[in-house]
Amino acid sequence: MTPIKLVLLWHQHQPDYRNGHRMVLPWVRLHATKDYLEMAQHLEQYPKMHAVINLVPSLIRQIEAYQDGIEDDLLHIAKKETSALTEKEKSLVLRECFLANVQRMISRSVRYLELFRMKERNYDFSVTDIRDLLVHYALAWTGEFSRIEEPYASLIAKDRNYSEEEKNILLAKQEMILDAVLAKHQELFERGQIELSGTPFYHPILPLLCNTDSAHEAMPDALLPYKRFSFVDDARAQVHRAKELFEERFGFELLGMWPAEGSISDDALRVLLGENIQWTASDETVLANSLRDERLGTPDQKYGDLEKYFPRKFSVGSKDIVIFFRDHGLSDTIGFDYASWDARDAALNFTQRCKDIHAAILGRFGEEAIKEACISVILDGENCWENYYENGKYFLNEFYQALTSTPEIEPVTFSEAITMIGKEHIRPIQHIVAGSWINGNFGIWIGHPEKNHAWELLSEAREVLDFCIETAAGTKDSVEAAHTSLLKAQGSDWFWWYGDDNASSQKNIFDEVFRTHLIEMYIHLRMAVPRELLHPVGSSESRGAGGAMHRAG
Predict the structure, then answer these.
(1) Do the domains 449-534 and 4-13+191-211+227-428 match in fold?
(2) Strands in 400-487 per DSSP E
């Protein structure tokens, strides 16, 4: 019996939180100590389990920045003598250190839950309370493999009344986790167990960089920015810089790219092809939209409702790129549903669904179709675990055990899948309807007045940069620095939080970071900073204003 190939891609991502010599948010550090190393360690325990880990270049650079000594605001405060904290610093601790799942993370400790109840009742926090809170927040954001080791185990058992020395030992120990993250990924890659893939450098929505009007392909009635953004060169720069980083950091040519939010279009695929990317992926909804598109003439639906399990090949001249399509039902079940299940039941449910897919393809189309099929399961590899019991430890153990012991399933990487299928057996596709893994469109990032205004600010900044380049108004170094700041502002996360479709207590910080990147561009060019960049996007002063996880829809 030929098993069906299954590719599991864990997407590890954080936008660029750096503002000068500080990190304005701690999420790179916290997910590193809780998730990034641990996800690799889970795979390491199951050598037969092959998978893809997607590392966003801006995440890699920030991990390296922590290794070089950069601090986020919370870490800087935590390292200070607790009794010397200012009222402003205490307020930040009380605001930030309860940003954790109450049931799964805070309630693991009697003391941490006690502090949470104190905050709810507006009690005054003593120096001991603040110190205990800092320690418990760090412990809550520590992975399960580390928690059984020292000093974590003793600190967890002690539960309260920590000393300054114990707090500092904990923080120093967590720096060692950060130091191990990239090395562990390289080790698993060199062993051949995982494939490392990347995204365009600062996680932009690549089709929108190529042309914001592409949003109309899946959203024909959407109101788009009055100033169209269309800078294919920036899309190329985002992809090219990602490739350079992987070669520099890991010593290999990047062959696969999960585009930010699974966003692809014909123009974006041409950019990827131009940088010799061999495979990419998107959501099944994008495939469905593309197969229905009238420009294809007679849609090629050889496998009908099972099409998403068969990759396609997009060609330009003699070059082609293979596109895999995400099963968003299977993917979202891991991301959003299995957290409330018994771990073994969840793993068995998943494998049974894969066996059902295997049986459906085999029964309708025979053994040859199985050889060309691949189930693609792609999801966020960091945010969902805080909803699982003990950070998903039991689920992942049962999950990997089930996947590697089920005869109908063969876990592989995307590059391995291409080799096993053979490029000559992958059917072509002539046109992709521009879209993402969320509802098959770009509505999360464009179309709302706030989102559109952010794109207009970006367009105006890009035109200023072009003017400076054309008139030689700046030095080579200043123009390069300005371009980097602009590329940072193109990250998808800033647009995600504008509008009213996503909520976060830190939404104002994301807005501030977006505007800061644009302000830095003007400063590098020694140009006057537009007044509207000094006010939040969407505020009355802003002209034209009108972990994140999300189901695929």
Answers:
(1) no
(2) 409-412, 427-428
Separation of first and last alpha carbons in the chain? 34
Q: Which fold is adopted by the domain 449-534?
A: immunoglobulin/albumin-binding domain-like (1.20.1430)
What letter would DSSP give residue 252? S
Residue-level pLDDT at 546: 32
Q: Which residues pair with 282 in a beta bridge?
A: 325
Instruction: Give the residues of the chain that fall short of pLDDT 70.
Output: 294-298, 540-553
List residues bridging with 326 in a β-sheet: 283, 376
Q: Count of CB atoms within 10 A of residue 79's CB?
A: 13
Reading the block at residue 8, the tokens are 């599991």
What's the rounded Cα separation, in Å, for the pair 547 and 234? 26
Residue 251 — φ and ψ, nearest 5°?
A: 80, 25
The model carries a pTM of: 0.95
Whole-angstrom Cα distance, residue 511 to residue 534? 11
Strands (E), 15-159: 18-19, 22-23, 51-55, 71-72
User: What dotted CATH number matches 4-13+191-211+227-428?
Assistant: 3.20.110.20
Q: What percent of the chain has pLDDT over 90?
A: 92
CA-CA distance, 266 to 256, in Å (whole number)?
Answer: 17
DSSP strand pairing (312-316 vs 256-257): unpaired
CA-wise closest residue to 174 among 284, 20, 32, 36: 32
Cβ atoms of 104 and 386 within 8 Å: the answer is yes
